[in-house]
Write a structure and sequence with these properties.
Elements: H1 2-14, E1 23-24, H2 25-29, H3 37-40, H4 48-69, H5 71-96, E2 103-104, H6 109-122, E3 128-131, E4 134-137, H7 140-150, H8 156-172, H9 185-199, H10 220-223, H11 240-270, H12 272-275, H13 283-292, H14 298-307, H15 311-322
Antiparallel strand pairs: 1-2, 3-4
């Protein structure tokens, strides 16, 4: 309904056919017998401001009423409201045209207020609050918009609003069994086949009830090999087992140093070392300290720089460990 109202209003502006949508007793109905205006008045709005108000009201009220009725009953209710309000509008113009009520503006104002009446009766307030001595609810803002819409083109818009409220009361009272009416099956099938694909699916997406664990990402620090084996000193005869252990230790130390360099580079890029309270030394600092201590491994130099606030403290740490 909202999409159709917006599209019809846009097309009426583009093709300059707005004068064909308002309802006027004299001369359109009495002299020219243009009775099709009784129904065409519901399809388009006169201007963009009224269209915006109606779209806001429909979005906040019609959706809740449709949830209470269901799609089929809501479409039937709109059809019944259009027919009943058109009949009442014609009777109102006939009865009060001598009081200068001869014109009803274009737009589904009567249908809108019929929906608002159902919204008032069916949908409860979510919360209430008080402004000075006045108690209002969350629905009050919607009624303020409706009041502005009813006073947009006086007196015709106010007459259309009263006709809409009366139409909603007639439907609510189930006069002539109007609440039991449903659209024919052929009309429903046409809507499902041609109109529903244009709107899209109205059902919420199905969510899985299974809880899937997140994949565990293993950090590079956890996979870094740690070895405590020392290589054999010079002049000491090495047994075959000791030689093999030393070779494994040297290989592990080389891999550990390579892993440490990769870890250091990753921490420097991501800033994880600085975020954890460990200073990330620059490459220039590492090269400067390594040139002072050529016998020290790169891993020892990087560790001393990480634990020290500056290069001087790192040099003192390395001197103390060397002695």
């Amino acid at each position: 309904m909202m999409m159709g109202l917006g599209a019809a209003s846009l097309m009426s502006s583009l093709f300059d056919i707005k004068p064909y949508f308002h309802l006027q007793l004299i001369p359109h109905l009495s002299r020219h017998h243009q009775y099709w205006r009784l129904l065409s008045q519901h399809f388009a709005c006169t201007n963009s401001s009224v269209l915006l108000l109606m779209e806001l009201i429909l979005y906040n009220s019609a959706v809740n009423v449709e949830r209470q009725f269901g799609s089929v009953k809501f479409a039937s209710f709109i059809t019944v409201s259009a027919l009943v309000s058109s009949t009442l509008s014609f009777m109102t113009l006939l009865a009060f045209h001598r009081l200068d009520i001869n014109y009803l503006p274009a737009g589904p104002t009567s249908i809108l207020f019929s929906i608002l009446y159902q919204f008032y009766r069916l949908v409860p307030s979510a919360y209430t609050f008080q402004i000075f001595a006045l108690k209002v609810s969350n629905k009050s803002f919607l009624y303020i918009l409706a009041l502005q819409c009813a006073t947009s083109h006086l007196p015709g818009s106010a007459v259309a609003a009263v006709v809409g409220i009366l139409t909603g009361q007639i439907y609510r009272a189930d006069v002539l069994g109007l609440k039991c009416y449903r659209l024919p099956l052929s009309v429903r099938n046409f809507g499902v086949r041609f109109l529903l694909p244009l709107i899209g699916s109205t059902r919420p997406p199905r969510r899985s009830s299974l809880a899937m664990p997140d994949e565990t990402i293993q950090r590079a620090e956890d996979t870094e090999p740690i070895t405590t084996a020392r290589p054999p000193q010079a002049g000491t005869p090495a047994t075959p087992g000791t030689t093999q252990s030393a070779a494994n230790a040297n290989g592990s130390g080389t891999r550990a140093q390579g892993a440490s360099v990769v870890t250091e580079w990753m921490n420097e890029l991501t800033g994880r070392g600085a975020a954890g309270g460990i200073r990330v030394p620059t490459e220039a600092e590492i090269n400067q300290v390594a040139s002072m201590f050529p016998d020290m491994s790169r891993q020892s130099v990087v560790g001393a720089l990480q634990r020290s606030p500056n290069i001087e403290r790192a040099v003192e740490t390395l001197l103390g460990s060397a002695t």
